[in-house]
Amino acid sequence: MSIYRAHILFPIDEGTIQSGVFEIKRELEEKIEEQNLNKEIKVLETGTIGVIGKGVIIVIYPDNVTYYNVNKTNLDNIIQEHIIKGRIAKRVEHSTEKYISGKKGYQNVGLTREQQRIVLDKCWKIDPESIDEVLAAGGYRGVEKIFSESISPESVIEEIKNSGLRGRGGAGFPTGLKWSFTRAAKGEEKFMICNADEGEPGTFKDRLIMEGDPHKLVEAMIIAGYAVGAIKGYIYIRGEYELSIKRIQKAIDQALEYNLLGKNILETDFSFDLEIKKGAGAYVCGEETALIDSIEGKRGYPRIKPPYPANKGLW
Amino acid sequence: MSREEILKKYDQTSDNLLAILHDIQDSKDEHYLTKEDLKKVSDYLGLTYSFVHGVVTFYSMFSLKPRGKNIIRVCQSPPCHLMGSTTISKELIKILGIKFGETTEDGLFTLEITSCLGVCGVAPAIMINDQVFGNLNTDRLYEVIEEKRRVK
What we know:
- By secondary structure, chain A is α/β, with parallel strands linked by helices.
- Chain A is built from 12 helices and 10 strands.
- In chain A, helix 10 (214-228) packs across helix 11 (242-257).
- The radius of gyration of chain A is 22 Å and the shape is elongated.
- The longest helix of chain B has 14 residues, at 138-151.
- In chain B, helix 3 (35-45) crosses helix 4 (49-58).
- Chain B has 2 domains: 3-58; 70-151, Glutaredoxin (3-Layer(aba) Sandwich).
- Chain B starts with a helix and ends with a helix.
- Chain B has a 4-stranded mixed beta sheet, covered by helices on one side.
- The A-B interface holds A 13-15, 17-18, 52-53, 198-202, 204, 207, 239-242, 277-283, 294-300 and B 14-19, 21-22, 45, 51, 54-55, 58-62, 73, 77-80, 114-122, 125, 127, 130, 132-135.
């Protein structure tokens, strides 16, 4: 494996796609080829950086410099100044760790100043389609910890309870409590369902996780599946989210290859499978019981509760 | 891929119904399901024809009518509405000469509505097949449609 001198990252989200990020990327790759730098520079696609409305954005590592509004005209300048001469292309709007074109960097402005990214921490630092990068960046440590230290499912649930983690469905139901219900529920076969059928206007966040760091979701499903004693997990994704489906499928395939999923995970007794269920355009299927009906291949009608899905759900 | 090949890919359990219908629909240029398809699928999975018909009509991504090569889905959520999706809808109706739910005579476009596409950052947005176009205004819309017409 060769070691690259620099990595150029292209965050892919709706804002950058609309500004023609793929065209710019192709152009950059051609230029790197021309300069014979393709052994030194690696170009990657990553998840969103969280800045929208700034056109095409590129991030250059190891310098950690972000350029905004990149287009065909100023791309040359960036290559000449930053990549060849190794200094910041000051004529292009940019930010480093500390400042943005003389002003403060976006990391230090407004809401983002006090933000500490937990779920999206790796989101724009890795290639979402490569499990090796995820592992190097600290992914799957939770799974590793549980199985290497043989932590019992009860302790996992206890840990989640103590963490105070709550659901994001509006009611803020404590996650640890929910898991303990399912663990205690009768029945031999238990299933774990991930609801990624988001359709509420203006509140999309599942997609950012699935497209930016799909392995995080896979890891979380493994841990949750282990804690509640499930044999299989389903991820229900909207039919409109083609890219999310593609990336999650890839993540599942890679995890299977590394024995993080499937039979006897990491040579333990625990086996767990994951399957994607693709929705077909029904807003109501975001409701948990309607979603369960949809997974079963029926019309997505909500059921009467109780019994709650934590006790009686799929099949 | 033919219908039989698609069916063979899946186990004969009813939870595969949506996936099978998706695959059959995607394998056709006209993006729709025939009565024959529904019959074959219901036989394969051991379901009744009426059940499969019910499922197909429930989900908006399935169609029983032939559709155009390009399916245009206009986002109907509030953020897009505020940013002018009504204008976009009117303009689309004018350019294509069809109403929502209809297909152009040349079989190139079908116009549909959809719930939030999750791209509110670039509202108003439309989705053509699996590609999203955002930050639309009348001029940009003309460009997009013209380009799709030219590709054929």
